[in-house]
Amino acid sequence: MSEQAQAVAPPVALLSAVGIKKSFAVGDRQLEILHGVDMQLYAGELLALMGPSGAGKSTLLHILGLLDRPTSGQVFLEGQRAFELPAERRAWLRNQRLGFVFQFYHLIAELTALENVVLPAMIHQGRGAYRRDRRAHEHKAEELLVRFGLKDRLTHRPTTLSGGERQRVAMARALFHDPPIVIADEPVGNLDSATGEKVLELLFEEQARRKLSLLLVTHDERLAARCQRQIYMDAGQIS
Amino acid sequence: MFRTFLSWRYLLVRRTNLIGIVGIMVAVGALILILSIMTGFLELSRVAARASSADVTITPFFADGEQQQPQPLPLEPSPLLEVLRKDARVVAASAHLTWFGSLIGDTSISSQIFSQGTDAVVRLVGIDVADEFAATHLEEFLSSTPLRGQKVADPKNPFALPPGMEGGRPRPVIVVGDSLMRTHGLARGDVIKVGTVVFNSKQELESADFECIVGGSFRSRENELDLQRVYVDRTQLARFLAGLRSQEDELPADARTYSEILVKLADYDRDGARICSDLKQRLVSMSVLHPFSNIETWEQQKRVILGAIENERALMAIMLSLVLLVAGFTIFAILSMMVSEKRRDIGILTALGATPRGVMQVFLMIGFWDALIGATLGCLIGTWLALKIDPIERWLSSTFDFQIFNREVYLFDYIPSQVEPLRVATIVLGAFVCALVFAMVPAYRAAKLDPVDALRNE
Ligand SMILES: Nc1ncnc2c1ncn2[C@@H]1O[C@H](COP(=O)(O)OP(=O)(O)OP(=O)(O)O)[C@@H](O)[C@H]1O
Ligand SMILES: [Mg+2]
Fold first, then answer.
1. Measured distance CA(A100)–CA(A123) in Å, rounded
2. What is the ipTM of this complex?
């Protein structure tokens, strides 16, 4: 490392990727999808990640979300080398410090809207602690859902909700533990533009209110333009 | 916390889990019920076997020719009985004279007997009533309520002529087994003939009919006895076998008058194990018993039949365990299906901070709930059925007019059943182990799934 690089302290990123490479085994060959990706997500920042389909955006997001291990490179989460931590610790970070919003909502069909939202708390706590805090958790989940306009949908199963409603439940779940970072992979890609806009409006509102670091993957230039910063990815590289 | 909650929710929503639960329930219930009945049966059989035989039976070997001992052995039981009765461990001893024959009856029942075939074979057992009462349970058998026979007029004196038969030609009185009486349609006071063979004066076999009067029945609850045994006075039988046909003739000196000695011990549990070899040594050294003679405890005598029931129970347990195995396999199949179906959920849970171990436990717990519900229900139902099987069977039989348990075949007036808590606990534990072991494989597979794969697409 050069002296100059050391002298200029890099801005503190909440989440950053350094030299991320990722290959998948396809047959007996290794297919490299990410070819050394560097990127930072700063505190309170609303960052858009754009790029053509197949560029590797979702693959990168899974790595940043500590769900998938990079073939090489480092992910720093709040200054820690995330993939050098024990797996339990990474699970804890996913639970407490990260929120996920997926394109296909990914709610659990057997649970009601409210139960889906408190699921992170159920995963975090043992039986005794959860029982003790249950009322508080449910209250908090209810508040979130009410804020997202789902006052009358608390006990609905996902199958009885519209796409927009499902995504709002998924957002409430991602925000349940008040994580500093939210990763959203085409959160409105599956919704018509009017509905999508309304849903995204809610997410932006929360981002501003909570000073969230929000990493948003989108194909929509207009949405990306509303973000503070945009990065582009093509063929496994940030350009 | 999510493990309990989610596994329970999955269980409730997925109705296919019912198959696993019902499977476990049926297996546990059937195991408890059938094994309880077998245990009850075994217990009753043991009691019956015990009651119908003496603690120790001595079967003397009577040698002829060169096998004869230096001094001839007594052909009469009294020297042996005398020695036995002096033994402090012995309470009573009774001599038996056993012979075989076939009921041939008189014309009124002969056709019936012909049609019975080998069922007509009987074992004539000559006894001394007082000795027999002291050494065995005969007195009890004579007074126990007959299932199909007819009690003797005076249980204290079974060989007395039945009322109304006094003054006829003097004939020996016999007491027959409860089942025998019914099978051959005998009644108290019937005059019947037992066809047999005896040795004549030239030591040749010749056929002879033992004509006698049925005095009544006894009931020991042991199949073989109740179906085949005919009690008669030992002296009368000995005289018949010696070929004496008139009351005045003296019994010849070379007539055999006993074939077994039944011994009752003061404390079977204490002395039973050692007394056989002990007695044999003493009796042989005193020249009252041939060394080839046999001395056995009741357990040694009945080991075959008791072993058979015990084997049957073990076999039954193994077969029913297969049902449990099948139930376990359905749990395996259902859970495997569920893991594939829930791949997306596994990805979601992982994204929300669940560890692979947590994911595994969700599916293990489904197996656990299956086992808990199935085994609890099976345990309750099985135990209840086992405790109430007799009234239930009676009710079913009377309601549907179809006899399920034929009491005549088994010689018990009720369906025996004995619930052993330890056995029940073992069965329930087995169900748990089975369900969990079978749940382990799909649960492990769930933990190994790549969450990203599952999250990628809808
Ligand atoms: N497990 C895998 N094995 C092999 N190839 C994979 C695997 N996962 C992803 N890929 C490939 O990696 C490339 C990038 O996929 P990715 O889903 O990250 O793209 P994306 O930028 O999110 O596209 P989209 O905008 O359509 O969502 C694709 O060509 C995909 O086929
Ligand atoms: Mg994608």
1. 15
2. 0.91
